Records
---
Amino acid sequence: MKIAVVGTGYVGLVTGTCFAEMGTEVHCIDIDTAKIDQLKEGVIPIYEPGLEEMVVRNYKAGRLNFSTDLESVLDEVEIVFSAVGTPPDEDGSADLKYVLEVARTIGRNMRNYLLIVTKSTVPVGTSRRVKAVIQEELEKRGADIPFDVASNPEFLKEGDAVQDFMSPDRVVVGTESERARELIHRLYKPFMLTNYRMIFTDISSAEMIKYAANAMLATRISFMNDIANLCELVGANVNMVRKGIGSDTRIGSKFLYPGCGYGGSCFPKDVKALIRTAEKNGYDMKVLKAVEAVNEKQKEILFDKLNRHFNGDLKGKTIALWGLSFKPETDDMREAPSLVLVNQLLEAGAQVKAYDPIAVPEARRRVGENGDRVVFTEDSYGAVMGADALVLVTEWKEFRMPNWEILKRLLRTPVIVDGRNIYNREDIDKWGFTYYGIGQ
């Protein structure tokens, strides 16, 4: 089988590469010439464990191809996946201009049957618009060519995307025809040899499943952050509360970890988009609005703890940050809590020294060195040297078991703010640190 994947961002590149790994001949298409040239050289635009090696291997084998010309491959392929970006508009709704432009290009140039599959996260009803655009372009040409549209939302976790794709817990596909269903089934069958995990729905339901899944996960995070903040006020320990409620099989333990707020490319954008979709249909998503509000406030909690410790005077203080990406195993800083914290610290007159195993180049691009007030170091202990406090922002594995003796010696004052609750208060107390967790 031959397919095309339009868009070589996070979703498109992982999708195309993993299909190629299973023997499918894949054409990855992107309008960014520089990106395509880099991919041909084995330089990938994102950090994702295991992806670079897989890209290089399949490109050399001839199963994975890169091009800027979608028109040239349409006669060769049976399926076109649209995995282009859907950035939020000013009102928070998803911007579909790239999705619809792909549809126009297909409608103007297709000559044989095609199945057009939307892989991007898009609002309910997008596939209908894609179908209408393609049909409109065909009518302009006076062409009567059969085609199908389908929705196949992605559920990839950044930092574990390759494994998620190669061994998915479910594959959701919304289709309208048996022909489309059979094509998708054949394409995904190699991933389902030991456990069939495909869920076929109507197209609108498939589009909604993606948003509803991310909204549910975001809701659990904000709920636990709300509970954590209350725990601090009443003297409870959120870690014990989390274990207690997570042991209930109706609730489960996943996504019950409090922290300093969620970020990334999915949760913030998708929650906003679902709220806007509801508003356009005359419905008020009160729960999700609260989820969004709690999350935005939670991103300020690390600064609030520091500010209280230093009695509202952070001017001239040096604050060390461990972790900048929104989560471990990625360099993605979109909507990252670290960005909020850095801005607040600078506004308060503090100096920032920061370290992240992967995300420093992206942080430099987003934050800038800002004179000598933001310094990025090459290792974790370099960030701590001479600092008045250490803030754990992202729970990278290398931060889990620091040398407390070295930290005590390097810090000007022994203050630790643990934004992810990865440390044991009893262990830290033995070394004489002042420790602040979340919900403890």
---
Amino acid sequence: MNLYQLFTSAAERYPHHPVLVQGDRRYSYAQLDEEVQRLASALQKLGLKPHERVMVLMKNRIETVALFWAIQRLGAVFAPINLRSSAEEIVYCVNDLEAKLIVFEEAGKHLLRKQKFNDRPIFIGLEAGIGDVSYEELLKSGGHETETHFVSDDDLAVILYTSGTSGKPKGVPRTHKNEYSSTVAHIIQCGYQMFDRTLGIPALSHTIGLRSLLAMTLLNGLYAPLPDMDAEESLALITKEGISCLFMTPTMYHDLVFHPKANQSDFSRIHSLVYSGASMSEKLIQTCDELMKPRSFVNHYGSTEIFTFSFFLDVRKKPGCAGKPGIHEHMKLIGADQDVRGKGEVGEIIVSMDSAEAFKGYWNRPDATRKAIKQGWYYTGDIGYMDEDGDLHVIGRADDMILTGGENIYPQEVERVLNEHPDVRESVVVGEEDNRWGQIVTAYIVGDRPELTSRELDHFCKAHLQLPNYKRPRKYIWISEIPRNSAGKILRRELREGQVTGREI
């Protein structure tokens, strides 16, 4: 099934059910279908053809959702770019995509102004006066008739750019089959139900955000897009709209449950909490559980390239566990000599490319494709091990491994211990160059108590039964917040290179 058929089937089943709510604007499936048809007609009049790329530089809005479905109707390719990208990254993506159209909002205007593109695209502004044509003008010019084209399951539906922690962004082409299969898997793995309702907080330029939209549409549910993460507004929507499931990053959950008004919100409809993008501390898991009491509390481990690697249904039982392979997946752990690792043995996590959720290779980047895909396996670059139950535990990135005095140390195993301290809100561990040891373990701390000292933390680490003495940090630096990219992933490179200022105590 191509994605537009998914949408039209949902609209035909329950045309009067609510599909979108943003502020005082509410759309039924029938109303959204009407807007989608008009947009598709207008975009076709502008010359948009099947397989051509449309860059969308907008936050999560009703208009972004309508554009997504209009682009799918025409068999074109939706290429969303996060507004937090730099002007240099935007120009790179436009030229890399050879975008036919760019749809943008006022907040992204500065990223496009006076930029030089290889081929100038048509600019469509959300607001009047900032582009060649405005969104409202498109709606007025569009009708209900569009020339239809056959769209196969193997045609591209979206190109998502990896936010990347270093280097240029990489375009990840995703077919209709990829997106549909990933969505079905997500619904099953997370225990979603018909007519579920969710918040659209993660950007639609990220696989998490897109998955929530598609899952709610397939289930005739409601998607409430939020242009920006606002904990107070999110809590109000959870109560007002009867939100029943959430798929967010751990940072978003943290901002939600530790907000002063969290205890005043009604979480009674919530049955599924799902997180991805980073590890979640035991402290945060416990707080979410006490406040929301979900039936399912799922750790989803995956990537833009292959949506699911693995999932664990209840992290309350094994905090940090990534669980079993997804319903479409086969994975294994290998050593440096490519031998398969057994239970308890650490190795790199690789995932079979036979999955219906797997991309075929990066957009215009054969070099990156050759590096990531070898003999039918996708090399994640993540390091982990299988426990006695056959459940996966991810302990870090291969590139983040710290080599000190001949010993290998993975940052997450140290961070897990530090985060258990009641006065540590968050921690990040990196290797700092050292003449004697090669590297030393350095911990960056976001604390909850100003009086907390490195001596106190060092004593805590020495006394902890799960942290060998040689793995404890030799240096502590206090910072106000952890640097992250738009997907919530920690930018350890910025810490290693000294781009974040802090203080030693």
---
Amino acid sequence: MQLKEKVVKKIQPINCRHFIDGQYVDSIHFKTFENINPATEEVLGTVAEGGKEDVDLAVAAAKRALKGPWKTFTTKERSNVLRRIGDLILERKEELAVLEALDTGKPYELALEVDITRSAYNFHFFADFLTSMGTEAYQQDDKAIHYGIRRPVGVVGMINPWNLPLLLLTWKLAPCLAAGNTAVMKPAEWTPMTATVLAEICKEAGVPDGVVNLVHGFGANSAGAALTEHPDVDAITFTGETKTGTAIMKAAAPTLKKLSYELGGKNPNIIFADSDLDEVVETTLKSSFMNQGEVCLCGSRIYVESSAYEAFLEKFVAKTKELQTGDPFDANTTVGAVISKEHYEKVNGYIQVAIEEGGNILTGGGRPKEMEKGFFIEPTIITGLDKNSRCVREEIFGPVVTVIPFETEEEVIEQANDTHYGLGTSIWTNDLRRAHRVAHQIEAGIIWVNTWYLRDLRTPFGGMKQSGLGREGGMHSFEFYSELSNVTIKL
């Protein structure tokens, strides 16, 4: 069943301009670049290419807005604005899902049911959380009372990735606004459209001019670099690859900006023989290939206890072959296109490396024969690789997973932790004691037992090692987006 007639024709791609001080504007030097549809390789439109001067204007607007009407908003008024943003996202969810699918190549249904719905919930969650949070207070015998007060950190620069463009941008912007800050957003150059619409939604919801600003452009030596180096930007929140995070840290060091990072991952999926293999396979299909495997939390290293290895592979390969790779606007599509030609070549390069290293391709390994254009890669399962293989150790960020057998609990814990990354892990077992025992030894910020991608937004989200810096979620987000002062009253 094709969805094109229903949605694509009535919702057209947009040309993307900057949004500064409440207005859409062109770049100062009128530079633009093309926005390419990864599923068709066609040009969707043009995007304003920002640079230092554009960032300067946006930061100046954000700095002025800190002292404007936004400063006088009560907690309840900010909460109401956040809730209205979430409501407007839902009112325009079909439009936003089309733009997201066109930009990213992901299935439209995935964008609609996960990305856009969750984006609205991010604002609804922090609208409620804002009005329910308290502060710490201590009485020091009969000498004094101490209590904490929170104030905005200031102007926040947001550098966003291309894999979950609106979802991850709203995950940052919602708590940023809840805490009373102003923002300058720099979306990924490959996925500019939903961020452009979000700026308009914020204004319609009652966000004062200058509070939310948007500058399109590239990273190094361009808009991204100008934002991280700017002396009037007080904090930077970044989601993306580890190498870029290192560059941002260097650029931010001279002005001692607060930093929050959610970086790469090479996440282990540990499957013990006592688990329910049908349940494991059903969830592993999602944790391996959802969003074309372009999710930092995907379980790309699959470890299976030897006694269940063959049975798992038989079920997993059979179910993977049922997945349909193709047109994002076909209702039967489960795997869309990867983000760009550059990334397509990178992922295919890793598949070739796996073959050269003696790996066995059990399914996938190429593009669907019927897809003449677009950056499509079939879901790929690789076995037979050594633990030191590049495909086992390096982040591929595509629909490619490796499966490796293990004998003992100690062995799999050692292999799971043998990585520079430490973002997420899934553990599958029906042994409660083992679940606790293994979870306590895994070096990762997020550990799931018998599930994956299940989140409560109050809980800490983030990674360790080279997978991140800091935590987000609930009060953890407010720790980053606010400055805490202690007031002491002598009794």
---
Amino acid sequence: MSKKTKTEGVHPELELTIQDIGYRGRGVARDDARVIFVPGVIEGETVRARITHTHKRFADAELLEIVTPSPHRITPECPLALRASSDPDAPGFPCVGCAYQHVAYEEEVRLKQKQLQELLRRMAKLETVPFADPVGAPQPLGYRNKITLHGGTYQGQRVLGYVGANNHSVLDVPRCLLAHEAINARLAELRAEGETDHGSHGSTRMAPDGAGKKEKGWLQSLRRSATVTLRRTETDGVLDAVRGIKRLSGELTEKSAVGDLTVPASGFYQVNPAVADLLVKHVQGLIEASTCGHVLDLFCGVGVFGLVAGLAGKRVWGIDSDERAIHAAQQNAKARDLADVSFESGNVEECLDEMLTASPMEDTLIILDPPRSGLEQRICEALVAAAPCEVIYVSCAPDTLSRDLTRLALPSLPLKQVKLFDMFPRTACFETVVHMARP
């Protein structure tokens, strides 16, 4: 439902009623038969918006004013978060990293659960799904153990932050509210290096030879194309790296639900340790309840799920293409004296046939934890042909998960449970654990 309020050239302004919030966090409204997407809104709100891009069947709009706010609307804690342009505190260049800074956290989790339900219904054609209650984060802010910032120039000043909505401009981010406070403290230290006491962009620090030559501050010395990564663990503190200058190298120790883990400093690990622990404990319960004696851990990373299975007395074969992660996984298994747990480096698609042939499918649980792109068609076909006893699919992308569940559909392997874990509060993303098992 919409009402036209004003027209300025080819950018009309409309009064819209937000009917839904789609995956990725944009509000869905309709103007006659056309769908209009508006960011920064909540289901049920009436807003004023301006069309920015028109496509054949839909249009994109920017939020101008909240006419009738939702009872779930809150003031964003981050000063860089998107606000209606009529808001006097609206940033001139908002950060697009957070999709839900304006929504009470309980409502954010409800919206994400609804999005997951709709994606499985629409894309996977699943009308009846055994959903469990979603799991929210203990801390919706200050949870990230890693951030990556980009160098750039904005309005003539050197900046360091996140890439904006136009995919090329960089927004200066002196402090990210999603990051652990220790990361923000280290970021502040780095940005202050070489700056004057007055905080100007020019440094008055003298050269070591005393010749009076000014040195550039840390921020000013970064290349425009620089990428800065800050990574924290409770054991190792905060490490920082600048691409091409200073690397994250070696291994770190992460505390987890299965004890201390060795992880590669520059490799993948979940960015929200608290929710990761809740997810691992959930998967642990599924593994321990399984009657299967064999486990194939595909895309195993540093081996968390394989370790859980090994500790439960299962025989485990894990595989991942990241050699650094596999080396860490092998160390983690050795530290727990798990002789029946094996981790190998390799491409899942290339090695899967051998793994499926070597393991008795009537006694095998397969754990899938692929990247955001999901499973290759070839992998799905091999799994369907093998018909394992049980599957646990851990996904960070509900759209590719929905696609893959269509490919994996087997009458002999029905869905037992689907559970959402809000691994990335305030952002548009979340994790899902799907359990499939023979009756």
